[in-house]
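Form P-L/3: holo structure prediction, ligand iron/sulfur cluster.
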Amino acid sequence: MGSEVSLGIPSVADGNVLLAAPRGYCAGVDRAVITVEKALDLYGAPVYVRKQIVHNKHVVAGLEERGAIFVEELDEVPVGSTVVFSAHGVSPAVHVEAEARGLKTIDATCPLVTKVHHEAKRFASEDYRILLIGHEGHEEVEGTAGEAPEHITLVQTPDDVAGLEFPEGTKLSWLSQTTLSVDETMETVDRLREKFPQLQDPPSDDICYATQNRQLAVKEISTDCDLLVVVGSANSSNSVRLVEVALEAGAKASYRIDDVSEIDEAWLDGVKNVSVTSGASVPDDLVDEVLAFLVERGYPEARAVKTAEESLIFALPPELRRDMKAAQA
Ligand code: SF4
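OUTPUT (holo model):
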């Protein structure tokens, strides 16, 4: 099938289709989605979820079909109901509000986001001003900033650094959102360090392993690439970053799509080499549909390009495990 001509479009069997590996679900997304599924099994529908459990509209729609109700804020959740907090994390104020409303909470915050929360608390307790590199309004940034609102200054781009001023003797540290561009974040940190030599680093990288691995993989499949397709939703920070990384790494064009229906046939005009990847909240069947679409249009079967092994698995939230165990007893 790979070399057949279809739909009147010339065969591009001499082209390449490269598939990033790793791509798609990370350990934190996997855990968050399973958390909602198990909560539905255990407590029955409806189970409320504050914000999108992960930033993918297909995943959210699938869970809605099973009885999850997604809300923006806790005042939409009936008193006494069960509510799951999303993988992006929440500020302490949200926990307090949940308790005040008598809600049963299950916290699906990714442990790698929780790690950043702990770093924020520690730096704040040592009276540091924390330069939080991230995007204003992103749920993860709101959650992390909420741990130490008096101590946080948001830095969104390398160019923001020029406008930062602090009184002499201010202790400074930096943290970041977990899903940023590694290269752009390091540029911001370099500028910060140049301007504020006293800058204290966090104990380890905040940009998570999954974000880093997916960006490295995209760099690998961007050279000699006419078109790089990223499957992922518009509000998925790590997916949007993959398009930027692809273009910087040499892809002639790159587009983000939620699913195969969003591919514009015109993108394939004169295109021989196509590369495909997906963000950390994207189920693999959405990628398979893109690959099938390419085969139908005369492209060869995809060749996976593996740049890292991933085997990390996170345990489900302890409050859920406890209830699952009690249900089996
Ligand atoms: Fe956790 Fe990284 Fe996945 Fe976000 S992208 S859920 S921080 S592993």
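COMMENT: Residues 47 and 68 are 5 Å apart (CA to CA).
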